[in-house]
Amino acid sequence: MAVEHTRPTGSEPEYVSERFTATADQEGSRLDAAVAAWTGLSRSAAAQLCAEERVSFRGRPAPKSHRVGAAETYTVQVPVPEDPHRIAAQHVPDLRLVHVNPGYVVIDKPAGVAAHPSPGWKGPTVAGALAGAGITIATSGAPERQGIVHRLDVGTSGLMVVARDENAYTVLKRAFKERTVTKVYHTVVQGIPDPLKGTIDAPIGRHPGHEWRFAVLQDGRRSVTHYEVLEAFGRASLVEVHLETGRTHQIRVHFNALQHPCCGDLTYGADPALSAGLGLTRQWLHATRLGFTSPDTGEDVEYTSPYPADLAYAVETLREGGPQL
Q: What pTM was estimated for this model as a whole?
């Protein structure tokens, strides 16, 4: 690929105009195949450039099925690659800084924000929001995950801690690995779990039929969730959850396996009508309490987060006997 400069991860796409001339061996090749060969992009990415009219021949956009001729010259708007070592600063007004000190920052993450950049995600990230707020973070970890010691799903709101220096990164990473961090979530699930207080000990692995989903599987990783019903409303219950392990989608998968999916969680079996009646556009799941030993002082610290407006509305609707379906 001819493009030599890069752009920060998570920034708006950029393109550079490049000219390529077809060789004799490419005579009769489809244009998307030729573009892939010229740029080093995948065939599907090259086809997407054609669909977006970013490939032209003699001044006019050319379709992916166009057959190239030897010595013909084409103009291609080549995408500028992302540099994982640079995170684009983003303005995320709903992300709240709960506590900031030289070693770490505790944030209250709104739904719709990913922990860090990842392939295919074009929305805001915690890393980008902190950069936008002028908060520097540790450089340890994979380039796109620097400072990130744990994650919340995009659709889950609540507390996260991010390391700001290398000592905090090491200490906090170890604390999460050794399970000495207190992680308390609240969720509203469909129905009333029986018993009202219990432990879900069921291994979780990647769903065999859906790469982006997870499921309880016999050969999955050990996953343990402790829960207690705080309020029962009949068609739904407010539940407090303590995680012993921290698998991806663990709470959502475990309650779906109990046939009490998180309200609003259409990915894991929630009733669309009940979700709509509660005004939910994402799973009712909130990281409400986070406690750990401070890397700076060695003292135990704990932070709490109130429900955001959408989750508070859903609970009030249930307390008032709603929704009327």
A: 0.76
